[in-house]
């Protein structure tokens, strides 16, 4: 069965290239890198060879090198940049079991085949290798999505896909297991950014390469009247007392290890050496007749 084409991947790359050329808005990425450094600080081991899968700028790779516990970092980039390998997160150009660590920040939310990308990352890691990723999650830009939908319906008499369907936190842990990762962990960091108006938010999205790249998008630009009405609805529904508007960004974190015999494993059924009643400190008995 073929993978549904949710995103126009060539357009994703062009939008990111434009954002990098014009000045990438990196406030979310800076936050993610700080969180990555904190998460890795709790892992008491060194990583001789690391892979950065598609992080928009070199900043994460630079942070890994500064950590003192990561040796060489190979960076896979969607756009041609110095000291990086041009490639695609959906088709990793690496042989199996090569890396000790793989990271990916704010990139995997725009792939068409997330399970396939996770499988490729797992295969690129050595046994007992670690993957840590961050991607935009389901509540991201919920306010903008609602405002655009209502405005387009009012002004143009119909709606079209405008904001990407980001993955839900509850589903990602299952995807890690399906990809073959052991000890999967997921959590999320909800970031709310305040803007003067919806147009300021849209400028930031353009500078992060996050404007509409859906494969089924309408090919004609939004009408000016629709954009103005979107800003009005946004302010009416979500505006705060000082006149500014909030925008929600959910950063979903996912991590897992490639299986290795040294990792903890659940006990086999029937292998317990202590009875549950003894462990709980209660008296085990037989229910009286007529009692449940």
TrEMBL record:
Gene3D superfamilies: Vaccinia Virus protein VP39. It comes from the Bacteria. Signal peptide: none annotated. InterPro entries: Malonyl-ACP_OMT, SAM-dependent_MTases_sf. One of its GO terms (biological process) is methylation. GO terms for molecular function: methyltransferase activity. This is Methyltransferase domain-containing protein. It comes from Microvirga arabica. The lineage of its organism: Bacteria, Pseudomonadati, Pseudomonadota, Alphaproteobacteria, Hyphomicrobiales.
């Amino acid at each position: 069965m073929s993978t549904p084409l949710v995103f126009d991947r060539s357009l994703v790359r062009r939008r990111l290239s434009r954002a990098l050329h014009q000045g990438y808005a990196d406030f979310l990425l800076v936050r993610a890198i700080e969180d990555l450094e904190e998460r890795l600080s709790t892992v008491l081991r060194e990583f001789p060879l690391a892979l950065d899968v598609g992080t928009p700028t070199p900043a994460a790779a630079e942070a890994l090198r500064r950590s003192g516990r990561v040796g060489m970092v190979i960076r896979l980039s969607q756009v041609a940049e110095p000291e990086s390998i041009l490639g695609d997160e959906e088709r990793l150009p690496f042989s199996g079991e090569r890396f000790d660590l793989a990271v990916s920040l704010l990139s995997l939310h725009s792939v068409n085949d997330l399970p396939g990308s996770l499988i490729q990352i797992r295969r690129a890691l050595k046994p007992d290798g670690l993957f840590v990723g961050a991607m935009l999650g389901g509540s991201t830009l919920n306010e903008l999505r609602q405002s655009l939908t209502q405005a387009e319906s009012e002004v143009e008499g119909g709606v079209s896909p405008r904001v990407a369907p980001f993955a839900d936190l509850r589903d990602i842990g299952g995807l890690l297991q399906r990809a073959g990762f052991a000890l999967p962990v997921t959590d999320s960091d909800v970031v709310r950014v305040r803007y003067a108006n919806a147009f300021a938010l849209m400028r930031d999205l353009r500078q992060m390469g996050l404007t509409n790249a859906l494969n089924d998008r309408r090919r004609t630009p939004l009408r000016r009247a629709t954009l103005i009405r979107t800003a009005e609805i946004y302010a009416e529904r979500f505006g705060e007392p000082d006149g500014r508007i909030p925008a929600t960004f959910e950063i979903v974190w996912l991590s897992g290890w490639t299986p290795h015999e040294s990792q903890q494993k659940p006990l086999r059924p029937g292998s317990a050496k202590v009875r549950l009643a003894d462990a709980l400190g209660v008296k085990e008995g037989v229910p009286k007749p007529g009692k449940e």
